[in-house]
Structures are given as C-alpha cells and as structure tokens.
Give the backbone structure.
Amino acid sequence: MTSRTRVLAVGAAAALFSAALVIGLWFAPAARHVAIVIRRPSPVTPVKQAVAAGPLNIAPFATVTVSSAGDDRGQAAGVADGDVNASQWVTQDELQGAWIKLAWDRPAVVEQIDLYDRPGPAENILGGSLIFDDGAMIPVPKLPPDGAPWRTRFPPKHVHWVMFRIDAAQGRTTGLAEIMVFGGLQ
C-alpha cells in the first residue's frame, strides 16, 4: 500500500466515523432531552414586604428551565406562576432523571419549597431531590397524588438557583402541577 493510498484510506475512515457520530448524536434519545427554557422571569420586581407578612413565593420571578417538555411548552410555563390550577409541566416521555430548575438573576434567600404532583392515580412522582447551587440536597419522598402540596421548611439559604430532580416515578410521563419557592430576593 502506497503512502498516498494509506492517506486516502485514513481520510475516508475518519469521514465515515465523523458522519456516524453526527448521525448517532442526532438520533440518540438522550440528545433530544436537552434543557428547555420555558419561561423567563416576570418583569415586575417583587416589593419588599413586612416581616409579619411572611415569605413571598419568588418562583414567578425565576427563569424556569426543564429537562424536556411535552408538546405544549407554553402551558408548562405556568408551573411556577403561583397558581396550582393554571398549567402543568409535563415531560416528553421522561420519568426518572427529569428535572426543573428555577434561577434568579439576583441572590435569593429561600426557606420553604412546596411541590405539587400532577393529580391522578397513574402518573406520580415516587421520589426526588431538591438540589441547590451550593451543592446541598434535600431528599423528597413520594409526592401526594391528590394534588396536595409536599412542603419542606429549612433554615434560610442564600442561592441563585434550585433544581428539583425526579429520581423515581410511575406512568408514561412525569412533571409537576406547581412549584413554589418561598423567601425573598435581595
């Protein structure tokens, strides 16, 4: 084999490998589940409230990103709007590993998070994790399937984002009816 033939053979093999890699990444199921921004923060800045009034739900002031969203991404944007009955985040053929992330453009102090499963007996979240930008995690048990909130309170944390990752679920898809994050923005 001459050196020119060898160079052509290596070049052809490299081209075939590159094409196969691109095709594999394009059609791989994991490649289709990339982060999707479903809502930018509300343009209205929250006002400082009196201490006696308690913490504010700051979820509507966050940028909401999800691992995947079903066909109606506009509906999913309401998952952090403060209205449990408005709209839901429904994944696209995802169960465990699905996630939703709320990020604020200013530091936030959070002390309570409420999670609402999508009501229904067939598709439920069986466990998950709340993950904060400082690396802290709070385990989440099975969410109430009747639409009632699962609530966790903790000492105030200074964060820029919080993520809820679904670690176990049943059904064909998963998601949340609502996520509320209580605290304040600095």
